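Each field is set out as follows.
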Amino acid sequence: MSEISPNMKLAVMAGEDQLFPDHNGFDFKSIQKARKHNQKSKSLRGASTISQQVAKNVFLWQHGGYFRKGLEVYFTFMIEKIWGKKRILEMYLNVAEMGEGIFGVEAAAQHYFKKSANNLSKKEAALIAACLPNPQGYTIVPLSKRVASRYPWIMRQMNNLKADEDIQALLE
């Protein structure tokens, strides 16, 4: 964690899971919203927290149905109890796909910006975070429309969240 820019830690929380410090691994309000949206729309909306994504990426497989989701719930519960928020965030930043075949923030920082993850600027961190959760479809190079429109929003959210005490504790 000490080798990752606080900008990157803040960017993924701003873009992926703004309630990360406060929930127990599950954002039930977002799950309910996604369920309602998915019943009405042909496009699917997810509601996975950073903790759920770590459980899937570290312990499970990418595609699957209810059985895999059930295991994801179990592993999410366990990592929340055993690892804690800092370790979960560290694992997320080190295992998430951040471009086609680019896993982890250090690889992404080197690939896109030719620098260490420790030296990422706010804008660079927001660009990387904007490719999540679909780094093969939402590309940084070439800059996809989704990333181009999403990274300024992430930067604004970073400004809004930065003063939060619980967020600050995870940036150290």
